[in-house]
Each structure stands twice: as structure tokens, then as C-alpha cells.
Write a structure and sequence with these properties.
The chain folds into two domains: 130 residues, Orthogonal Bundle (Non-ribosomal Peptide Synthetase Peptidyl Carrier Protein, Chain A); 39 residues, no CATH class. By secondary structure, the protein is mostly helical. The chain contains four helices and four strands, in the order ααβαβαββ. About 4% of the residues have low confidence. A two-stranded antiparallel ribbon has the order 1-2. A two-stranded antiparallel ribbon has the order 3-4. The protein is 56% helix and 8% strand. Helix 2 packs across helix 4. The longest helix has 43 residues.
Amino acid sequence: MIRHILSEFKKFAMRGNVLDMAVGIIIGAAFGKIVDSLVKDLIMPPIGILLGEIDFKNLFIVLKEGSKPGPYETLIQAQDAGAVTMNMGNFINAVISFLIVAFAVFILIKAVNTLRAKLDAQEKKEEKAATPTTKLCPYCATAIPLAAIRCPYCTTLLNEQSTTHRPKGK
């Protein structure tokens, strides 16, 4: 019983889409760290300067003071003192991170869709080129349109019931 369940689980886990999903999650986690660093280390400092030297990570409201009374200059000081805080700066950083990730995913999906559309168009073009548009007259061996019911060169009637050669004027 347990072997059977383990065997089924192994089949499930080794399916291509499960492995692809696992790789996507791992790369997504790494990408999340990069975006987090981008927001905290590169984007937020200039935004803070533009908004009057505001450091978003230290933007908080003390709801209840801790064992050591405030004022607290940084969020870390407030947390170390055991104060209960509302951390708006962390929320703002998270929203900006989300917007950056969402925009990056949008750009990625847009690029993939553009590439897919080009590949689909190329496949259709190749498929259309591979589809014959002419056939050979069985009597004079001249290329004629597929829809032709009479050869324009030897005037043979080209339907599947009639295979007799009827030259012009006879």
C-alpha cells in the first residue's frame, strides 16, 4: 500500500509540469530577493530624498509604548523596546516591490506573447507554403489550380468520375 502511494507520488513529482513549476518557484524566490534589494537599496533612497529625507523603513506609528518609553527614532529601536507599532513604511516598500514585480512580469509576458505570435505567424506561413495550390493535369502534365474542373491547356474535364480525355472541339 505504501509502496503504491510512493510510486504514484514519484510519477506525479517527476511529471514535466511539476518540475517546471518547482524551477519557477525557485527562480521566483531569487527574483523576489533581487526586486526587494532594488526597492530598498536603489529606488527608495531617492524617493525618500525627493519627499524630504523620509526613510520609508522608519515610517511607523507607535500604538503602545514598550518597556522603554519613546520617542523612538527608528523602527528597530521601537521593536527592541517592545513597542507595538504600525509599520506604514514597510507596507509602502511592499507595495512598491509588488508594482515593480508586476510590471516586470507584464513586460516578460508581453515579450513572450510577441515572440509566440511571431512564431505562430511563421508556422502559418510555412504551413501555407507547404499546402499545394496547384495540381497536375493527368493528361498534359501542366500545373493547374486545385479548384479547376477543366484543364485550361488541353480542356480535359477534371472530375473524379470522368477520366476520359476530351480534346478541344471533340
